[in-house]
Amino acid sequence: MCERRFRGRLVAGPCLVLCLGCSLTASTSTAGDSARPQSVPAAAATVQQATRPQVASTDADRSPRGTRRWRLTTPAYDGQIEGYTTRVSGLPGTAITLKVSTSATTYTVTAYRIGNYPGGGLSVWRSGPLPGGRQAAGSFSNRYTRTVHATWHRSLTVPTVGWLEGFYLLKLVGSDAWQAHVPYVVRSSSSEGKVALVEPVATWQAYNTWGDYDFYEGRGSDRAAWAVSFDRPFPPPGASEMRFGVIPVVRAAERAGVPLAYLTDIDLDADPHALDGARAFVSPGHDEYWTDRMRAEVLHARDAGTNLLFLGANTAYWKVRLEPTSSGPRRLLVGYRREPSADPLRDTGRAAGKYREQGSRSAENVLTGMEYECFPVDASWAVASPRWWGYRGTGVRRGTSFAHLVGVEGDRVYPIATTPRPLQVIADTAYSCGGVPTSAQATYYTTASGAGVLDVGTLRWTCALAGRCPTWRLGRRTTRFVRTVTRTVLRQFAAGPAGARHPARDNLARFDLPTVNEVPAS
After folding, report:
1. Bond before 248 cis per omega within 30 degrees
2. Taking the alpha carbons of 276, 282, 283, 284 in that order, is the dihedral positive or negative?
3. Cβ(312)–Cβ(245) below 8 Å
4. Per-residue pLDDT tens for 497-515?
5. Tell me, what's the pLDDT at 306?
6. CA gap 51, 125 in Å, rounded
7. 385, burial (CB in 10 Å: exposed 0-12, middle 13-18, buried 19+)
8. How many other C-beta atoms lie within 10 A of the C-beta of residue 341?
9. How far apart are CA 434 and CA 23, in angstroms?
10. Separation CA 191–CA 200 (nearest Å)
11. Strand-strand pairing, 280-284 and 2-6
C-alpha cells in the first residue's frame, strides 16, 4: 500500500513505489464522461492577449531576489483550473504552447524559474488577465490501451526569449483563487563540461492519474492503462512529485556552484548526443521508467568518463517506449506494466517490461550498481565506510545512523556477475520486507573510463535535501548530513571523472549478501 493525496488528504492505496505527492483526483475531467460545456474563447484572441506580458524581465533572472509565491496556497483539487504544455522542454527562446481549462471567469499565468533564490523561485514572466473557460473532459484516444487524452484548444503562448536554462513552473491562478502548476524545462543546447540535471518526466506521466487512468490504476479491477498520453494535465497540486524530488536537487546543485545543464529524459530519448562531454549525469529522485535510448545514452556517457549520480531508488526498473500521436513525436508513453503479454511488440526487442527480465545484462544493476529490492521500506541509513570521500565534513563513523532516511523504497547490492566492480558499499542496514529479512545499501563504483557512479538507494534522499519529507520529520541532523554529502559529490563529479581521484575500494566480501533475490517480486 502507498499513501497518495486525494483532495488534500493522504489516503492509502496500492502502488509499486512511492509517488511523492501524486494525486487521486475526483476531477470532472474523467475518461468516458460526456464533454463539458464549451466556453473556450477563440484561440487567436487568447494568444494575442497572452503574448503581451505585464512583467517580462531577463535581467531579473540574474537577480538574487526570489520569492515563495511559486508555491500553491489553494490547489485546485477538483479541477477548477488545470493545464499542460504541448512540449515538456524547449531551447531558450522557444515559445511555450499552453492549454488551460478553468471554471473561473479569468485567470493569469506566472512563470517561475526554480533555483538558488530566497524562497526558491524567481518570477520571470506574467500574463495579463485571460478569459477563462472549460475545455472538454478527458476521453479515450485509444480504448484498447485505455489511453486518456485531453483534446483541448490552445489557450496561450508564453514567450521565453531571454530566459535562462533551467526548471520552471507555470503557475495558473483563476479569478476564483484556485491554483495549479504546469512544469516546463528550458533545456540546454549542450552538456559539454557541465553537470546534467535530467528531469524524469516519463515517471511523472506513468503516475499521472488525470482522467482516472495511469500505469497503476483505472476504473474497475486491473484496468490500469497500457499507454498514457502527455496531452493532459497533472492532477493537483501538480508539482508535488517535483517539489520533493526534483526541486531540492535543482536548488542544491545551484547552491553548490557547479556548471549545470538542464534536460528531461525525453530529451535523452530524442538526442543521442545530449550528454556528450558532460562531467556528470544526475537522476533526481523517482526515476523508474526508462526507454532503451535513455539507458543507452547514459551508459555511453559513463563509458566515456561521465560520472553518474542516482539520487533515488528503483531507478531504470521498467522499460517503456515513446511513440508519436497526432499532437507530435514522443507524446505517448507505452508500458503494458500489468499485462506485458498484451504488448503487440512482445516478441521483439522493443517490448515493454522489467529490464531485469530482458536478459542479465539488462538488469538495472548494470547501470546503477544495485537492484530494486522492496516497497515499503522504513529503515535507518547506517554508515559502512566512514572514510569514503563523499562523507568528508560530516564527522560520521562506522555505524553512525540516520533514522528513517531509507524509504519508502530501497535498493540492494548483489555480488553477481553483472554487478560492476570495484564497488564500495558506503551504507548498509538490515530490515524486513514483508516478513522476509533483507537489507538496503548505498554504493559507489568506478569504471575503466574513470567515471564514478553513486546510487544512494533510497527515495527519501531528495526530500531530506529539502528538510521535509511527506510522512517523516527527519530532523536537522539528517538534513545537514544529506546536504553536505550531496554538495561534496556534486563538486567532485563536476571536476571530471571521479574514479581517477577517488577509486572505489571494493568491500563486498565484508558483507553477507545473497546472490539470489528472496523478496517477492513487486
Report:
1. no
2. negative
3. yes
4. 999 999 999 999 999 888 8
5. 98
6. 10
7. buried
8. 8
9. 25
10. 17
11. unpaired
Q: Quote the pLDDT of residue 25.
A: 31
Distance CA 484, CA 490 (A): 10
Res 28: pLDDT: 32
What's the half-sphere exposure (Cβ side, CA atoms, 13 Å) at 206? Answer: 28
Region of residue 448 (phi > 0: left; psi between -120 and 50: alpha; otherwise: beta)? alpha
Residues 6 or more apart whose Cβ sits within 8 Å of residue 220: none
pLDDT of residue 163: 97
Residue 273 CA to residue 65 CA, distance in Å, equals 35
Under-50 pLDDT residues of the chain:
1-63
Looking at residue 238, what is its pLDDT? Answer: 61
Model pLDDT, residue 518? 67
Residue-level pLDDT at 417 = 93
Residue 50: closest CA among 172, 149, 175, 178: 172
Q: How far apart are CA 269 and CA 297, in angstroms?
A: 8
Q: What is the pLDDT of residue 20?
A: 32
**What HEC string does 324-370 produce?**
EECCEEEEEEECCCCCHHHCCCCCCCCCCEEHHHCCHHHCCHHHHCC
Contacts of 51 (CB under 8 A, 6+ apart): 156, 157, 158, 159
Share of the chain above pLDDT 70, in %: 86
User: pLDDT tens across 164-201, in order?
Assistant: 999 999 999 999 999 999 999 999 999 999 999 999 99
> What kind and span of H or E run contains 6?
strand 2-6
- How far is 34 from 31, CA to CA, in rounded Å? 9
Q: Is 275 left (phi over 0), alpha (psi -120 to 50) or beta?
A: alpha
As given in the structure block, the three cell numbers for residue 245 are 524530488
Cis-peptide into 159, omega within 30 deg = no
| Distance (Å, whole) CA 302 – CA 498 | 11
**Residue 226 contacts residue 235 (beta carbons within 8 Å):** no
- Whether the pTM exceeds 0.85: the reply is yes
Q: Nearest Cα to 235, choosing from 165, 304, 181, 301? A: 181
Concatenating the DSSP letter of every residue in 57-112 gives -SGGGG-S--BSTTS-SSB-TTSSEEEEESSSEE-TTPPEEEEEEEEEEEEEEEEE
**Which grid coordinates are listed for 109?**
499565468
Q: What is the pLDDT of residue 237?
A: 65
Residue 107 sits at φ, ψ, to 5 deg, of: -155, 165
**Which of 78, 101, 75, 76 lies closest to 27, judged by CA?**
78
How far is the CA of 360 from the CAs of 14, 320, 330, 438, in angstroms?
A: 29, 18, 28, 22
Give the dihedral of Cα atoms 173, 175, 177, 178; nearest 10 deg: -60
Strands (E), 154-273: 156-158, 166-174, 179-186, 195-199, 227-229, 260-264
